Amino acid sequence: MKSLLAGNWIYCLLFCSLVGSGLTSCGQTVVEGVTLGPYEYETKPDDPAFAIFNLRKAPQPGDLLIRPGDRLAICGDSITEQKMYSRIIETYLTACVPQYEVTVRQYGWSGEKTDGFLRRMDQDCLRFDPTLATLCYGMNDARYRPYDATNGRWYEDHYRAIVRKFKQADVRVVVGSPGCMGKVASWVSSGSGTLDQQNINLCALRDIAMGVAEDEGVAFADVFWPMLQAQVFAPGQHQATKEQPYNVAGRDGVHPDWAGHVVMAYAFLRSLGLDGSIAEINIDLGTNTATVSDGHTLQSYGNGTLRLVSDRYPFCADGPIDRDNSIRSGMTLVPFYEELNRFQLTATGGDSDRYKVTWGEHSREYSADELAAGINLAKEFPQNPFSKAFQEVDSAVKAKQDFETHQIKQVFHGERGRDNLQQAVAETEAKRQPLADSIARAHVPVEHTITIAAVEQ
């Protein structure tokens, strides 16, 4: 115990958590005469699945971290190499907040730990002069076994070294925690311990990652806690069965499908300080006037019909609501619509109790009170006038990110890179650039019409 106390304070906290101290709220704890705290802890749902976890409270998202023209590097292990949460992030930044003109590269590498990225970050990442980076490491660093302090220290040292190297290059950083596991990974022959023990290990690394972010003055993205809660509650919410399970952490217990990746993307996008306000459309039915927020141009308005041209898209997802391979389903597991995807329509001043709102080819009815409070068109109309253009952007993002995996893994670290790295970089960049240009071309202004008509009683 004395060796633990000699290290970073977080190891003391983790020791208390791992031996079942029962810490669940802000308070002080004394271990061998040393006072720990007071620290604030996450409020746990009233469910026995969470009894073994005692997590430090994650910081709230801070001010906007993005600056116009940022070059974002999305770094991580095989979960990043899946190119799912990274794709959601890039498509969101391109379509929903295009005013920032952020460009993206993803650097996922299967099986990687923090030491692996630290060794390759000069060659693969820093050579492209990123200005902003997200990190998501810890699943492999946990080594699929129960927590031990030596490995925790190893993870902390390497994660901190990555952050400091980015900071030395003037890169703003978001330190991400690992996610949770849904089952013991049968394909990891060296693994040991129960699922609970392995998730406690990941929870411990989550707190360590938070401590690194705090010490280094950078942002933190909590992936573990929202994913664990979704893993516990989503199956019941979506009527999962043995034949049709709902696996937030993925079929193999480690690699999520789309729903789990939405949870991850939500954590990182919120950590970037984005406020989620995509559109504010206000209509006064009494005075026959309308206003719109930045990113949208009012072409005309009259008699309840609004014609707009918009550069800012809502995040569009129209898949099934009850499948773990659906982005739309994943958007129900976290407050994605409320905090990242508000395409808000407000209408007041009318003389009817009910109205029909038509957006594109689809219509829905609302009370006057609902319209006065505001409705989120992105949530209410999963199929909308932006759907086709949004998919064009997303398809272009996918093509570019697929190439980036090939560029880094097969070329830079393959025979061509070993023979002449500078030439390999030049040749692959010449192929990547048209793919990046295709994303910019895919993002086009969208013309759309919103109609509000009184419903006769």
From TrEMBL:
<dbReference type="Pfam" id="PF13472">
    <property type="entry name" value="Lipase_GDSL_2"/>
</dbReference>
<dbReference type="InterPro" id="IPR036514">
    <property type="entry name" value="SGNH_hydro_sf"/>
</dbReference>
<dbReference type="InterPro" id="IPR013830">
    <property type="entry name" value="SGNH_hydro"/>
</dbReference>
<protein>
    <submittedName>
        <fullName>SGNH/GDSL hydrolase family protein</fullName>
    </submittedName>
</protein>
<dbReference type="InterPro" id="IPR051532">
    <property type="entry name" value="Ester_Hydrolysis_Enzymes"/>
</dbReference>
<feature type="domain" description="SGNH hydrolase-type esterase">
    <location>
        <begin position="76"/>
        <end position="261"/>
    </location>
</feature>
<dbReference type="GO" id="GO:0004622">
    <property type="term" value="F:phosphatidylcholine lysophospholipase activity"/>
</dbReference>
<keyword id="KW-0378">Hydrolase</keyword>
